[in-house]
Amino acid sequence: MVKKLISNYIVYIIYFLGVGMVSSGIVLMPFNAVRYSIILSIGLLLFIAGSIFNEIVINQHHLSLYESLNLIIVSLTLAIGIGMISGGISHFKESPSYASYLIPMGIIISFVSFAIKNNYKLQKRDTITLTIAVFVITGILHLALILLGNHLFIDVNPGGDVFKPMQH
Which parts pass through the membrane (predicted)? Predict the structure, then answer.
């Protein structure tokens, strides 16, 4: 039981550190492309490592080359989508326009990736209905975020609070 606890804990740490770094890398990249590209890359590698460790070591799945590549690609897109949502929410004030695209796109990317990763097999009708619903919801969310960003009574100059020196 101790081995399982430690293994599961390590996977969760790797997943969440990876997503946190992906989130920071995606949302802050416009402010320092080199630094945040490195952080993004490390986060993606961590998330992939967590996914592989979870499938092969913990769940003891024997994956074919195709299944392994699929796991890597879906893990990448899932981490990027979640990172877009998290980063967009966390740094909305710094760049509302950028976040208004990141959050809805992240929802679409992560939703599709999650469905593929977990092997959901939907009927054609359900797929069409769900696709329309997701695009309508994310479209409305995008418009709401644009309106919110344009009507905030806070300083929304590029960079926002993150890049201002702390007051002592």
Answer: 12-31, 37-57, 69-92, 98-116, 128-148
Q: Are 87 and 27 in contact (CB under 8 A)?
A: yes
Residue 58: both structure tokens together:
């913990």
Distance CA 31, CA 161 (A): 13
Cβ–Cβ under 8 Å, residues 65 and 91: no
Report yes or no on whether pTM surpasses 0.90: no
Query: Please, which pLDDT band fits residue 30 given cuts at 50, 70 and 90?
Result: confident
3-class state of residue 62 by DSSP:
coil
Rounded Cα–Cα distance for residues 1 and 140 (Å):
46
**Per-residue pLDDT tens digits for 58-70:** 888 888 889 889 9
Residue whose token pair is 């949502």: 85
Give the Cα separation of 139 and 23 in Å (integer): 21
Cβ contact 99:91 at 8 Å: yes
Q: What is the structure's pLDDT at 146? A: 93
Residue 167's pLDDT is what? Answer: 54
**CA angle at 106 for the pair 105 and 110, rounded to the nearest 5°:** 120
